[in-house]
Write a structure and sequence with these properties.
single chain; about 475 residues; alpha/beta; five-stranded parallel beta sheet; 14 helices; 25 strands
C-alpha cells in the first residue's frame, strides 16, 4: 500500500509513522519545515517563551518572599529568542529522525493533486511525481485575515510575527481575546509591556467555563491589562507613538488605543489553496475540506485530517485524527472520542478543561450537579503562592457521571489528563474520590472538588 501524506505537522508526521508501522510505503510531503505550525510557529515557541518569562517573573516577584535575595535582574530578549529557536530546532530535528527511523520518504516542496492517484510535488526545477493508493491531506491552517483598514501597516503583526519580535515593545494592542491572544498577553505583560486586549465577544476565552476564566481575568487586570470587551475594531492608523486602533465599544461610543505594536489574532483558517482539490473533485466548504466520520473526503482514495478540515484546531487533535486516518487507509476501523478533548491555556494561572462547561450543560437541558473547590484551600497551591484558581466538575445529577472538568491554577494543563481519562472510562465523581490522591499536591484538589459535587468536601467550610 502506497500512502502519500501532504503536510508534516503533528497530524501529518504522526499519520506517516502510524501508516509505516502498519506496513505502508509512506511518502511525506512538506513545503516548509517538518513539525508544521505547532513546532515552528505555534505551541512550542510560545511555550518556550512562556517558560522564560515565568522564570523572570519568579526571580523578580517571588524570590524575596521565599527568602532568596537577588541582585539586579534584567531581560536579555535576544537570548530568550535564541533559546526558543534552539528548542524548536531540536524538536524539528527529532521529527526528521523519526521519519528516517520509520522508513518514511520525505519530499520537500509544495504538493498538488494531478488525479485521485497521483500527486506532483517538489519544486518547479525538480518536480517529483508521487503515485499513491491512499493519500492523507494534513495541510494545516494559517492565521485568518480580517478586513480592517490599516491591517497591513508596518508594526501590525500576526502570531508568527509576535513570536519573532527583535525587542520587547513598550505597548501592545492585541485584537482577539482567544487562546493565542491571551497567551501572547501573558508573555509580553511579564516582560513589562503595557497590554490592551480588544475582543468583539462578551468575554475573553469564550470556549472555556466562565467561572474558571474569572480568576485569570482578575490577575490580568491586576497586572495592568486593559480588557475592551464587546468592542469592534474600525481601523488602524499610523500614529506618532506607533499605531492607533480606533474602536467602537458596547455602548456605541468610539474611542482609540495607541500602542507601539498591534497583534492580530482573530483565529485561523484552513490552508487548502493550490492543492488542486477542485480539479479532482475533493469537496470543500469555505476552504475547509469536507470529510465523513472516517476522515474520508468525497474522493474515496483521499482522506483529510487536522486544521484543514476545521473543527477543533489543536495539535493533539490533529495527531489523533492522523492515527485514525492512517489506520483507515490500512483497513482498520479505529474510533475517536471527539467529545473528550482537553484544552490547555498556558497563562498564569494556567487554565484547562475537558467535556462540557456549565453553560453548555445547562443549555442542553441536562440535570447537573456542580462541584467547585477553590485552591486557597489546597496546601501545595499555598506553598507555590498560586491560590487564585479552582477545580470544577460538571456531573450528571442522577448517574453522577462526569460530564466536564475545568481547572484554573498551577499544573492545570498537566492535571487535566485525569479528567480526560476518567471521562473516557465513564467514571463518576465517586470513582474520583474513592482513589487516594497524594498529599501535598495540587492534584488532590481534584478529589476535593469531586467530594464537593454532593457537599462532602473536607477542606472547605460547608455552605450555610
Amino acid at each position: 500500500m502506497k500512502v502519500a501524506i501532504i503536510g508534516g505537522g503533528p497530524g501529518g508526521y504522526v499519520a506517516a509513522i502510524r501508516a509505516s508501522q502498519l506496513g505502508a510505503d509512506v511518502t511525506l510531503i512538506e513545503k516548509e519545515a517538518l513539525g508544521g505550525t505547532c513546532l515552528n510557529a505555534g505551541c512550542i515557541p510560545t511555550k518556550s517563551l512562556i517558560h522564560s518569562v515565568d522564570l523572570y517573573h519568579a526571580v523578580t516577584h517571588e524570590a524575596a518572599a521565599n527568602g532568596i535575595s537577588v541582585g539586579a535582574v534584567s531581560v536579555d530578549f535576544a537570548a530568550m529568542q535564541k533559546r526558543k529557536a534552539k528548542v524548536v530546532k531540536k524538536l524539528v530535528s527529532g521529527v526528521s529522525g523519526l521519519m528516517s527511523a520509520n522508513g518514511v520518504t520525505v519530499v520537500k516542496g509544495a504538493a498538488r493533486f494531478k488525479s485521485a492517484s497521483l500527486i506532483e510535488a517538489g519544486t518547479a526545477e525538480d518536480p517529483v511525481e508521487i503515485p499513491f493508493d491512499r493519500a492523507i491531506i494534513a495541510s494545516g491552517s494559517v492565521p485568518s485575515s480580517v478586513p480592517i483598514p490599516g491591517a497591513n501597516l508596518e508594526g501590525v503583526v500576526d502570531s508568527t510575527g509576535a513570536l519573532s519580535l527583535e525587542a520587547v515593545p513598550e505597548s501592545l494592542c492585541i485584537i482577539g481575546g482567544g487562546v493565542i491572544g491571551v497567551e501572547m498577553a501573558h508573555i509580553y505583560q511579564r516582560l513589562g509591556t503595557k497590554i490592551t486586549i480588544v475582543e468583539m465577544l462578551p468575554d475573553i476565552l469564550m470556549t472555556q467555563d466562565a467561572e474558571v476564566v474569572a480568576p485569570l481575568k482578575k490577575v490580568l487586570k491586576s497586572h495592568g491589562t486593559d480588557l475592551l470587551l464587546e468592542t469592534r475594531v474600525n481601523r488602524i492608523e499610523r500614529a506618532e507613538a506607533g499605531l492607533t486602533v480606533h474602536v467602537t465599544g458596547p455602548d456605541g461610543g468610539e474611542s482609540s488605543v495607541t500602542a507601539e505594536k498591534v497583534l492580530l489574532c482573530v483565529g485561523r483558517r484552513p490552508a487548502t489553496e493550490d492543492l488542486g482539490l477542485e480539479e479532482i473533485g475533493v469537496a470543500t466548504e469555505r476552504r475547509r475540506i469536507l470529510v465523513d466520520a472516517q476522515y474520508r473526503t468525497s474522493v474515496e482514495t483521499i482522506y483529510a485530517i487536522g486544521d484543514c478540515i476545521g473543527g477543533i484546531m489543536l495539535a493533539h487533535v490533529a495527531s489523533a485524527e492522523g492515527v485514525c486516518a492512517a489506520e483507515r487507509c490500512m483497513g482498520l476501523e479505529p474510533s475517536l472520542r471527539m467529545d473528550i478533548v482537553p484544552s490547555c491555556i498556558y497563562t498564569s494561572p494556567e487554565l484547562s478543561g475537558v467535556g462540557l462547561t456549565e453553560k453548555e450543560a445547562r443549555s442542553r437541558g441536562l440535570d447537573i450537579a456542580v462541584g467547585v473547590f477553590p485552591l486557597m484551600g489546597n496546601g501545595k497551591s499555598l506553598i507555590l503562592g498560586d491560590t487564585a484558581g479552582l477545580v470544577k466538575y460538571i456531573a450528571d445529577k442522577n448517574t453522577h457521571e462526569i460530564l466536564g472538568l475545568h481547572m484554573c491554577g498551577p499544573s492545570a494543563t498537566e492535571l487535566i489528563v485525569e479528567g480526560a481519562l476518567a471521562m473516557g472510562k465513564g467514571a463518576t465523581v465517586e470513582d474520583i474520590f474513592s482513589v487516594i490522591h497524594a498529599h501535598p499536591t495540587v492534584g488532590e484538589a481534584l478529589q476535593e472538588a469531586a467530594h464537593s459535587v454532593f457537599g462532602s468536601c473536607f477542606h472547605m467550610p460547608p455552605k450555610k
